[in-house]
Design goal:
GO terms for molecular function: acyltransferase activity, transferring groups other than amino-acyl groups. The chain has 303 residues and is of the alpha+beta class. The chain is built from nine helices and 13 strands. The chain folds into two domains: 145 residues, Aminopeptidase (3-Layer(aba) Sandwich), CATH 3.40.630; 114 residues, Aminopeptidase (3-Layer(aba) Sandwich).
């Protein structure tokens, strides 16, 4: 089987239209990160795309979209992860447009010792695993199944009005000073995660809820939610002592408002484990609808 080489392309609004015309699904998951500017984009064909890879500059994760499983198979056959996913494109990347990158970014010009494929639709999981086993001695796809949610906007003004009713003066943005605490409470904490969390906490699109501690006089952080580099929202967390008080609804409402303001043409979206009933119920009550189910695949070479 002849392999297919990916091509690096620069974001052009007309390419989104072409992808939609070609039959790509979940266009909102493509347009969001492209508009945010935190991804490098790769396709098998600029004029007749069948496969799209989005390489996240900050988290170094890869998102995959395809309308042709056979060509996706051929694309994977042409990738040599042992030399680093980005190595073939080293001279083509416009580094001046990269505003923020984590330390692990440079490793993908040498090797891709650890790599995450995010929000993989279930129909392409087998193809990915088949090829990754040639490079990695550890493959994990047992993190559970997630529902992909998006927020349809029928009446933007009415949506904003409803969200504003959920917010009070204790809701604000996260700050860079919150990053260590947020990272320590993130269920997917790793040696590299603090870099992503620092980026997320420094963004305007985040939300936190603070309560004054009567003993210390400080405003304690008790609930938060943030935006990922792919422009999805997530990592909703509330201190167990303060759950059931509606703080998660407040921070979720604020981050959705900020998302609508900063990316007014894009639909807010997120991922929730299918067995996370409280978060599923909360987001449905805020108007979110499910789209498809996805998984995460993490591969590494453990010594």
């Amino acid at each position: 089987m002849n392999s297919v080489k990916l091509q690096l392309f620069k974001h052009d609004i007309s390419f989104n239209t072409l992808l939609e015309a070609r039959g790509f699904k979940q266009i909102f998951r493509i347009e969001n990160p492209l508009e945010l500017g935190n991804v490098l984009s790769f396709t098998d064909s600029i004029t007749e795309p069948n496969v799209l890879f989005l390489f996240d500059i900050i988290s170094c994760d890869i998102s995959i979209f395809t309308i042709n499983l056979e060509i996706l198979d051929k694309v994977f056959e042409g990738i040599n992860f042992s030399i680093g996913f980005l190595t073939p494109y080293k001279d083509e990347i416009d580094y001046s447009n990269i505003k923020y990158k984590t330390p692990s970014f440079d490793s993908h010009f040498k090797h891709s010792e650890t790599l995450t494929f995010k929000a993989v639709t279930l129909d392409i999981e087998e193809i990915i695993l088949k090829h990754l086993k040639n490079y990695y001695n550890t493959l994990r796809n047992n993190f559970g199944i997630f529902d992909s949610f998006y927020l349809p906007i029928d009446n933007k003004e009415e949506t904003i009005k409803k969200l504003n009713k959920n917010i009070d003066d204790n809701v604000n943005s996260l700050t860079i000073e919150d990053s260590e605490y947020v990272n320590n409470n993130w269920p997917y904490k790793s040696n590299e995660s603090i870099h992503f969390i620092k980026w997320a906490c420094s963004q305007e699109i985040s939300a936190s809820y603070r309560i004054k501690n009567e003993e210390t006089g400080e405003n304690d952080l008790v609930s938060w939610i943030l935006m990922y580099p792919d422009a999805s929202i997530g990592s909703l967390f509330s201190d167990p002592k303060y759950r059931g008080k509606g703080f998660a609804r407040k921070v979720s409402s604020l981050i959705i408002l900020k998302k609508l303001q900063s990316q007014p043409t894009q639909l807010p979206y997120l991922f929730i484990k299918i067995d996370n009933t409280p978060s599923q119920s909360l987001m449905r009550s805020l108007g979110f609808k499910t789209d498809t189910q996805v998984k995460w695949i993490v591969c590494s070479n453990n010594k």
